[in-house]
């Protein structure tokens, strides 16, 4: 049995989980509402404050999907209860970001500013011009938006300029001057 799939998910107070006849899971909490349609051959149960998933067979596909469904529902419960957050740091002279309504305006070393339309269900704040905080209830959507923003200017290894996740380590390289000095001696 899947180690993750066989663990029941504890539903905290203030979060309501319901399963429809077509295996559509609806999770509702203080931060919002999320839905997910699981495969119909899986058995989904809500007993009291526990949510559990059981699979129909021991095939390889069913084993992997078993754990996936459980993890997705667990992420949905955490999302509507607490929410998810990704923090990005901008490094570089003249690099900055600001939120203007539903648009994130990012100025990097390009000739024009980048205007990123903030998707529905995502909140972006910039407490400082070099910090971007992405929050939302859907873990996948928060991660995707943060990755899209980071892709505008990934951190480069020579000067460290670019957009990186908070806490991400950028491996630095020595430049030509340091490499060339040792070769001529």
Report on the structure:
- The structure is a single chain.
- This protein is 23% helix and 35% strand.
- The strands form 4 sheets. Strands 11-12-7-13 form a 4-stranded antiparallel beta sheet. A 3-stranded antiparallel beta sheet has the order 1-6-5, covered by helices on one side.
- The chain has 2 domains: 9-81, Alpha-Beta Complex (Outer Surface Protein A, domain 3); 84-165, Ribosomal protein L6 (Outer Surface Protein A, domain 3, Alpha-Beta Complex).
- It has 185 residues and is of the alpha+beta class.
Question: Any key phrases for this structure?
Answer:
3 helices; alpha+beta; 2 domains; three-stranded antiparallel sheet; 35% strand; 185 residues; Outer Surface Protein A, domain 3; elongated; four-stranded antiparallel sheet
Name the structural class: alpha+beta
Q: How helical, in percent, are the residues? A: 10-25%
Distance between the termini: 63 Å
- Specify the biggest β-sheet: 4 strands, antiparallel
Radius of gyration: 22 Å
The CATH topology of the largest domain: Outer Surface Protein A, domain 3
């Amino acid at each position: 049995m899947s180690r993750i799939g066989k663990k029941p998910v504890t539903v905290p107070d203030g979060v309501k989980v319901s399963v429809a006849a077509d295996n559509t899971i609806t999770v509702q909490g203080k931060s919002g509402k999320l839905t997910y349609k699981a495969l119909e051959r899986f058995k989904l149960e809500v007993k009291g404050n526990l949510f559990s998933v059981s699979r129909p067979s021991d095939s390889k596909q069913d084993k992997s999907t078993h754990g996936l469904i459980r993890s997705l529902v667990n992420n949905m419960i955490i999302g509507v209860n607490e929410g998810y957050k990704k923090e990005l740091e901008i490094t570089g002279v003249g690099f900055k970001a600001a939120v203007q309504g539903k648009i994130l305006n990012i100025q990097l070393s390009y000739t024009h500013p980048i205007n990123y339309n903030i998707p529905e269900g995502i909140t972006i704040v910039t407490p400082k011009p070099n910090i971007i905080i992405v929050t939302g209830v859907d873990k996948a959507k928060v991660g995707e938006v943060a990755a899209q923003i980071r892709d505008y200017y990934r951190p480069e290894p020579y000067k460290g300029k670019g957009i990186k996740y908070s806490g991400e380590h950028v491996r630095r390289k020595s430049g030509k001057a340091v490499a060339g000095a040792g070769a001529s001696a």
